[in-house]
Each structure stands twice: as structure tokens, then as C-alpha cells.
Amino acid sequence: MKPQMTAAGHERLTHRLTTLKRARTDARERIRVARKFCDFREDVTYTEEVRDYERLEAEILELEHLFNEAEIVESDHSDVVTFGNRVVVRELHQKELESYRIVGEAEADIDQGTISITSPIGRTLLGAKVGQLIKVTSPAGVIELEVLHIEP
Q: The whole model's pTM is what?
């Protein structure tokens, strides 16, 4: 099965890829400068610059692979939670509401209010209806949530 991503996630990750490619150019220049002044056996600066460059390259390759494989899925208005939906939930016996958009693993970012379709909450929310109580088993224990609202 192809990895799925939302259009918003695709846009955000495209921006990330552009930023990484610019950083790669800077990293190459830092390696070139460090190479001029180093003893390759002992130079920590050179070694760190090479490691940073390798991390950039790995993330670039991972994103490019994802873009080649991923399918962009637009969420529809539905009576049940599906990929790409924003879901408003409330933990039982709590007043605070939480809102999550169900997305693919690559674009999940809890700080942005997105959770992976493969996360415990994401998996459990799929197929849930408004008003339904669901039990989420997570490393922190069992959490009971009420689904309050589903948005495309």
C-alpha cells in the first residue's frame, strides 16, 4: 500500500525539502572550508560537518522517496473518521477539548495538531462516529475519548 499524505502535509514537507536542499549547499561549503585547515585523523570540526551533511542527505533522500511513493488523499465530509479528517475529542471526565488531524506518519506532528494514522489514538479513531466513546490503549494506559465533531 502506498503511503498517504494530505495536501497540506505535502506542501509543508515540500517546503522542508527546499530548506534542506539550501542547507545542503551551505553544509558542502562548511566541509570545504574545514577540509583546508584540518588533520583528518583528529579534526572534530571536520568530522561534525561531515556528519551534519550526511544527516541532511539522509533526510533529503527520505523525503524524495516519500514524494515518489506517496498518494495525496483529500478528506471528505463523512459521518465516520477517515484519513485527513480533523477530529475534536474530549477525554471522559475532562472539560478540555482536543483536536487532531489524522495524517500519514511522515507528516505527523503533535505540535501542529496532527497525529499518525498508525498511532494508538489515530488507529482507534478511524471509523468512529460523532458521539461514540472509544477506548485508546497507549503506553500511558487506557484513555476513554468521546468523539464530538468530525471535519474534512
A: 0.80
